[in-house]
Amino acid sequence: MATPQASGDSSQPSQAKTVRVVIKGRVQGVFYRNWTIENATQLGLKGWVRNRRDGSVEALFSGSPDSVQEMEQRCRRGPPAAMVTGLQVFPSNEDPGTGFERKPTV
C-alpha cells in the first residue's frame, strides 16, 4: 500500500494503461516497426512491436492513458510509406517490460 508521503510522485503505476494493437494494411517492409519504436519511446511508453506472418504488425503499449491514446492515433496514420487499413485495440494485462523493444515475428 502506498504511503501518503509518496503522493508527491506524479507517475503512479496504478494509472498506467496497457493495450495490445494489431495494425493491418501495407505495414510490413515500410519501416513500421522502427517508426513505432521511435514514436513509443518519444511518448515514454513501454512495450514491444513485432511483425506477424499474416502481414499485420502487433504491438503492446503501456504508459499514461494520454500517451497510449496518442500512440493509437499515430498508429492509424503510420510512417509515410505505410497504408493502414485497420487498427484493432485490445485491453491487456501483459507485462510491458522495462523499455520498448522489437520482438521476433510470430
UniProtKB/TrEMBL annotation:
Active site positions, chain numbering: R33, N51
Catalytic activity: an acyl phosphate + H2O = a carboxylate + phosphate + H(+)
Family note: Belongs to the acylphosphatase family.
GO MF annotation, one: acylphosphatase activity
Domain Acylphosphatase-like span(s) in chain numbering: 18-104
PROSITE patterns: ACYLPHOSPHATASE_2, ACYLPHOSPHATASE_3
Organism encoding this protein: Corchorus capsularis
EC class name: hydrolase
Keyword NAD attached: no
Keyword terms of this UniProt record: Hydrolase
Disordered: annotated span: 87-106
InterPro entries, per database record: Acylphosphatase, Acylphosphatase-like_dom, Acylphosphatase-like_dom_sf, Acylphosphatase_CS
UniProt-listed Enzyme Commission number(s): 3.6.1.7
One Pfam family it belongs to: Acylphosphatase
Protein name: acylphosphatase
